[in-house]
Design brief:
Radius of gyration: 18 Å
CATH architecture of the largest domain: 3-Layer(aba) Sandwich
Strand content: 15-25%
Number of domains: 2
Strand order of the largest sheet: 3-2-1-4-6-8-9
Number of strands: 9
Shape: globular
CATH superfamily of the largest domain: NAD(P)-binding Rossmann-like Domain
Length: 258
């Protein structure tokens, strides 16, 4: 089904590695033009150069999503390099895990600034042109933490619950203008963040094995598997899907853990 994203001009945040990079690769393979945003300027430039070498239409800008002015400038640059964006994937995020009463104010603010305010800055930057065009798609990368709670992960699930609320609110607010806003909730994915988490234990191999035991299929997702779901949600194959969330977690959030 090559060409599923022909005509799509997609902005992806957190695009220099992991799920964001996998989405860029998948979207390009289906005919989209992509514009990559990430804080890591050197890695972003290298990945953009790699993707451009495949023949895809790729633009990029290093920007901090918590800086609204920087995001406005990045979206303006995207319009010049790939055309006015008609799709956005809010993928950038940060893990902040703590016991509630041990959490510092600085970590609370960092978690909300990146996971919620940053996503809103990006939505606010692209929505006016989507509304004017009468069409557009926004996909917020949430988490299974958006509807489940794991102890000692505060305030990360609070931000993801809020992101899901923003998804629903914006989806309903602008449905009449032809803009769809949805969320995608991955569970565990083999990204560098997860690998670093395993490596934080005295025995990383055992830590990884314990993670696998949580899952019905005894494995976790690869970034490319999340990218395939995102591709579907950005595409015109689900044009009546709005203000909702698709869970891609191998069933782990359904399984009861006594």
């Amino acid at each position: 089904m090559a060409g599923r994203l022909e005509g799509k001009r997609i902005v992806i945040t957190g695009a220099a590695q992991g799920i964001g990079l996998a989405m860029a690769e998948a979207f390009l393979a289906e005919g989209a033009a992509v514009f990559l945003i990430d804080r890591d300027a050197d890695l972003l430039s290298a990945q953009a150069e790699h993707l451009q070498a495949t023949g895809g239409r790729v633009g990029h800008a290093s920007a901090d999503i918590t800086d609204a002015a920087a995001i406005d400038a990045a979206i303006a640059r995207a319009a010049g390099e790939i055309g006015q964006p008609n799709a956005l994937v809010n993928n950038a995020g940060v893990n902040v895990f703590s016991e509630a009463l041990k959490l510092s104010d600085a970590d609370w603010e960092r978690c909300f600034d990146i996971n919620l305010k940053g996503a809103w800055n990006c939505c606010r930057a692209v929505l006016p042109s989507m509304i004017e065009a009468g069409s557009g798609a926004i996909l917020n990368i949430a988490s299974t933490h958006a509807f489940t709670i794991i102890p000692h992960t505060f305030p990360y699930p609070v931000t993801k619950h809020a992101l899901l609320g923003m998804t629903k609110a914006l989806g309903l607010e602008y449905a009449g203008q032809g803009v769809r806003v949805n969320a995608l909730a991955p569970g565990y994915v083999r990204t560098q963040k997860v690998i670093d988490y395993w490596n934080s234990f005295p025995d990383p191999v055992t830590a990884e094995a314990e993670t696998m035991k949580l899952h019905p299929g005894r494995r976790i997702a690869e970034p490319a598997e999340i990218a395939k779901a995102a591709l579907f949600m950005i595409s015109d194959e689900c044009t009546f899907m709005n203000a909702t969330c698709l869970t891609v977690d191998g069933g782990v959030s359904v399984l009861h853990h006594p």
